C-alpha cells in the first residue's frame, strides 16, 4: 500500500462510500463519467491492497437504549500486563473501542451503556476487578458534535 497513490477517481470513490456504502457503482460511474466496470475494478483493487477493509452499518445507539457514552482511562499495574488485560477487556461487551496509549493511561476505552447505574456496575464488577487494572478514570460524554471518517 505504501507505493499506491490515490488519484482523483479513487478519492471520489472512497469519499462516496464513506458517506454511504450503499451507493451503487453505476451511480458513481455516472457522476465521474467512467464505466461501471472501472469503478468496480478500482474498488476491488483498493480491497486487495487492504485500503478498503469492509463496510459498516451505523445505528442510532440512543434508539437501542444506550443512553450513556463514556471514556475510561485505564492504568495497568505493569506495562507487561497489557496483553492479559486486553484479552479480559474484550469480554466486556459495553466496550466499543480500546486504544493502547502513551501518557498517563495504558488503555483508553469507549463504552456505551444503558444507564449510569449500568456503567457503575460494569466499572465495579467487570473492569476494576481485573487483576491487571490498577486504576480507572471515567469521563461521561455529554454529546458528540463531530463524528466523521478520515478523508482520503
Quick rundown:
Strand 2 (95-100) and strand 3 (107-113) form a beta hairpin.
For this entry, give a set of tags.
35% helix; 152 residues; single chain; alpha+beta; elongated; 4-stranded antiparallel beta sheet
Question: What features would you describe in this structure?
Answer:
With about 150 residues, the chain is an alpha+beta fold. Helices cover about 35% and strands about 20% of the residues. A four-stranded antiparallel sheet has the order 2-3-1-4. A hairpin with a 6-residue loop joins β2 and β3 (about 105-115). The longest helix is centred in the N-terminal third of the chain and has 13 residues, at about 35-50.
Strand arrangement, major sheet:
2-3-1-4
Q: What is the rounded Rg?
A: 20 Å
Secondary-structure element string: HHHEHEEHE
Say how many strands there are: 4
Helix fraction bin: 25-40%
Overall average pLDDT: 95
Report on the biggest sheet. 4 strands, antiparallel
Beta content comes to 15-25%
Our count of helices gives 5
Distance between the termini: 13 Å
Shape: elongated
Write the layout of secondary structure elements.
Blueprint: H1 8-19, H2 25-32, H3 36-48, E1 68-76, H4 82-89, E2 95-100, E3 107-113, H5 116-127, E4 133-141
Antiparallel strand pairs: 1-3, 1-4, 2-3
Helix pairs in contact: 2-3
Amino acid at each position: 500500500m505504501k507505493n499506491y497513490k490515490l488519484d482523483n477517481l479513487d478519492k471520489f470513490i472512497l469519499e462516496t462510500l464513506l458517506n454511504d456504502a450503499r451507493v451503487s457503482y453505476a451511480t458513481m460511474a455516472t457522476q465521474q463519467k467512467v464505466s461501471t466496470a472501472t469503478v468496480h475494478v478500482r474498488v476491488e483493487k483498493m480491497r486487495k491492497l487492504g485500503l478498503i477493509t469492509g463496510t459498516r452499518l451505523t445505528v442510532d445507539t440512543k434508539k437501542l437504549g444506550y443512553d450513556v457514552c463514556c471514556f475510561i482511562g485505564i492504568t495497568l499495574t505493569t506495562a507487561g500486563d497489557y496483553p492479559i488485560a486486553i484479552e479480559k477487556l474484550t469480554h466486556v461487551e459495553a466496550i466499543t473501542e480500546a486504544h493502547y496509549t502513551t501518557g498517563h493511561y495504558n488503555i483508553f476505552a469507549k463504552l456505551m451503556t444503558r444507564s449510569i447505574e449500568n456503567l457503575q456496575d460494569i466499572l465495579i464488577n467487570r473492569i476494576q476487578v481485573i487483576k491487571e487494572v490498577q486504576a480507572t478514570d471515567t469521563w461521561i460524554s455529554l454529546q458528540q458534535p463531530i463524528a466523521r471518517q478520515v478523508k482520503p
